[in-house]
Amino acid sequence: MLRTSLLTLAVGAAAGAHAEVTLCGQYGDYETKAYTYNNNAWNPTGTGNSCTTITNGTGKFDPFYAVWSWSSQPVEVHAYPNVQFNAPALPLMIGNVGSLNISSAWTLTNATGSGPSTSGRKNAAAIPLQANVAFDMFADMNATVSQMPAKQSVEIMVWVAAFGSYAKPEGYSNGIQDTVTLPQATFNLYIGDNGRGQEVYTWFATTNLPKFNNLDLAPLLNHLVAKKLVSAQLYLGTVQFGTEAYYSAKPVNFSVSSFQAKLGKVGKNKGSKRSVNLLE
Ligand SMILES: *[C@@H]1O[C@H](CO)[C@@H](O)[C@H](O)[C@H]1NC(C)=O
Ligand SMILES: *[C@@H]1O[C@H](CO)[C@@H](O)[C@H](O)[C@H]1NC(C)=O
Ligand SMILES: *[C@@H]1O[C@H](CO)[C@@H](O)[C@H](O)[C@H]1NC(C)=O
Ligand SMILES: *[C@@H]1O[C@H](CO)[C@@H](O)[C@H](O)[C@H]1NC(C)=O
Ligand SMILES: *[C@@H]1O[C@H](CO)[C@@H](O)[C@H](O)[C@H]1NC(C)=O
Hints:
This protein is mainly beta. It is 8% helix and 47% strand.
C-alpha cells in the first residue's frame, strides 16, 4: 500500500507540474519524462506559422494543441507538430516489438471556433484544409542512428486521418502494395521515398479515426518484416504522433486531448501463441 501511494506521488510530481508552455520556433520542443512535444515547423517556406501549446496536465500526458496556417503554393508539408513517446526500451528491434498500443483522441477544427472537421476524408467543414493526422516512426539498422533525426534509413508512417486531396502518402501513385485490417480500421500500404534518402512505408487508414483505443501498431510493423520489406533486426528508434500541416489559409487548431502509448516486447516463450512482456 505504502509503495503504491509513493509511486502515485512520484508520477504526479514528474508530469503536469508546469505552467502552460507555447512553442513557436522551428524546432522548439518541451520534454517531460514520458513524452517530448515538438513544434517541428521544419519547412517554414512561404506564408504561415505554427505554434504548439502544452497545457499543464494531471497525468503522464499533457494535453496539447497546435494552431497553424500555411497558405503558400505549391501545397506541401510545412510542419509536423507532434508528441514523441520517450520509451526507455527504444531503440528496439522491430522483430522484438510485441505490441505498441496507442490510445488517443484528437480534433482538427477551425481555430475561430467552428468544427470539428474530423468527420470526413474530404473537406467536411468549410475550411480548405490539407493535412493528415499520423504516426511517424523512424528506424535504422544502427541503434544509435535510429534516433538521429533525418539520418535514419527507414520512415514508417501510420495515417489515421487525411483531409483534402493533396495529403497523400509517398508512393501513392504506385498504388496499394498491401492491406492489413486491425480492429479499429483497415490500413493500405504505400511505399515511396521522401527525397531525403529515407524509404517510406505508409499505412493509410481507409476511414478517419478521431479517437482510438489500444490501436496496436505492432502488426503493421511485423507485416513489413513478414513480407521481407524490412529486416527484423531494424531498430525502431522514434515514435511520434501529430499532424502534417500542408495547407490552410485560415488558422486551424489540432488538439490532442488524450494520449497513451504502451510498448510490449516479444517474450522468450515464442510458442504458437505470441507472448508479450509489457515494458511501459
Ligand atoms: C499544474 O497542475 C498541478 C495539478 O495538476 C498544480 O498542482 C500545479 O500548481 C500546476 N502548476 C502550474 C504552474 O500551473
Ligand atoms: C485550441 O484548442 C484548445 C483545446 O480545445 C483550446 O483550449 C484553445 O483555446 C484553442 N485555440 C485556438 C486558438 O483555437
Ligand atoms: C470558422 O468559424 C467561424 C465561427 O463559427 C465562422 O464564422 C467561419 O466562417 C469559419 N471559417 C471557416 C473558414 O470555416
Ligand atoms: C552506429 O552509428 C554510430 C553513429 O554514427 C557510430 O558511431 C557507430 O560506430 C555505429 N555502430 C555500428 C555498429 O556501425
Ligand atoms: C493491445 O491492443 C490489442 C488490440 O487492440 C489488445 O488485444 C491487447 O490486449 C492490448 N494490449 C495491451 C497490453 O493493452
